[in-house]
Amino acid sequence: MKCKICQNKSTSCFDAVMLNKYDVKYYLCPQCGFLQTEEPFWLDEAYADTINISDTGIMHRNLRLCRITSVLIYFLFEKEANFIDYAGGYGIFTRLMRDVGFNFFWHDPYTVNLIARGFESNKVKDFSLITAFEVFEHFTDPLKEIKKMLDTSKNIIFTTNLLPNKIPGPEQWWYYGLEHGQHVSFYSQKTLKYIARKFNLNLFSSSGINLLCTKKINNFIYKSLILAGRIGFHLYVKANMASKTIPDMYQTFQDNK
Questions:
Q1: Are the beta carbons of 108 and 84 closer than 8 angstroms?
Q2: Which segments of the chain are extended strands (E)?
Q3: DSSP letters of 130-152?
Q4: Who's near 163: CB < 8 A, 6+ residues apart?
């Protein structure tokens, strides 16, 4: 099978039972370290509910990423710019970031916007940065999706659990998501470096938070900002931003007159 990242030949790695019924083959690329399933014929069934029932960490993850992303944007990007949460689910992250004071907008063609209604991405243009949390592993055609994102902004903050150095078997790594069937693409650090080179971008990674961007950043500063977000420095950011919670309420009043 051809690797969907570097187009070299991938070799059979293991078989796993998906959705408790389908025998699925996994292929590993020896060149770029990308692991992919066979062409996923089960996705209609897997996405009967776009947010799978086993995602019990959805609130904790969004709160944690809001803190870290607030610090990264405040110190590395123009904080008054427009931002987009790609594949934003119910709109939790978009609402959290607007509550801090960042001009975030929601995008997700497959999920209902429940929390950030009125702040969909089609209402604005010129985004400075995209966030894409727990999204890359869902891509059936990763390079096509990444290019689509880069056509919107050349800066992407994203998360996806990277493959361990020794590829775990199907019962040894929960991130394969065999019970819900939505995870079909798995990346190593080597894969991310290949993607960064392909699109002529810089890659920074720390504590599972990855940044593809045009600018060069000191690695120590990037890691320090991640740590700062984890240990509470987001409170400084919040204190120096103007929350959009109340202004957004009045904006929705105006929009719905």
A1: no
A2: 11-18, 22-28, 35-37, 82-86, 103-107, 127-133, 156-159, 185-186, 202-206, 209-213
A3: EEEET-GGG-SSHHHHHHHHHHH
A4: 33, 35, 186, 187, 188
- Judging by beta carbons within 10 Å of its beta carbon (0-12, 13-18, 19+), is residue 116 exposed, middle or buried? buried
Query: What residues make up the domain containing 124?
Result: 11-255
Domain count, the chain: 1
Q: In a 3-state reduction of DSSP, which class is residue 114?
A: coil
pLDDT digits over 29-52, tens only?
Answer: 999 999 999 999 999 999 998 888
Q: Edge-to-edge strands of the sheet including 11-18?
A: 11-18, 22-28, 35-37, 185-186
Q: What's the rounded Cα separation, in Å, for the pair 113 and 111?
A: 6
Tell me the two tokens of residue 111.
């999920």
153 in a domain, yes or no? yes
Any domain includes 1: no
**Within a domain: 3:** no
For 17, phi then psi, to 5°, come to: -95, 115
- pTM of whole model > 0.70? yes
CB 69 within 8 A of CB 61: no
- Closest of 92, 93, 97, 95 to residue 73, by C-alpha: 97
